[in-house]
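A protein record pairs a chain with a discrete description of its three-dimensional fold. The following entry can be read in just this way:
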Amino acid sequence: MAKDSGRTVGKRTAPQIGHMMDDGTVYVGVSPSTKKAMFTTSRDAPRLRNFEEAQAYRRDRNKRKAHGHDDWRLATPGELAVLFNRSERIGRFKISSEHPDNLYWSSKQDGYGSAVVRNFSNGREENRLKDYRASLRLVCG
């Protein structure tokens, strides 16, 4: 299936945010990082994962061409902000006040063994050691 960039193409209208695509992905909007249409899965990756397990899960999804894509990635902090701001329309995020379920890994790492997560209860960015177990929602596009 061709991916829409969020514009009207001929008589066809691009999907709305939160629209389930034919390939099973969900349209999120335009990535602030790539400036391209961005898609996510309809639910979180199964179980909480540390950062390295999250990267391994991403590699596996690409190897298996999950939903027909081989460009899955951990979201940048800016992309996670888009997911958070549109979470009600996208759906199925963990938004409880319970840690670690409401924390989602980003791709941003520092040199001290930690990475950035976004708290989906309050929208704040936080740093966590990479061995911390958090939720994961991959993006592609």
Q: What stands out?
A: Confidence is low (pLDDT under 50) at residues 1-11.
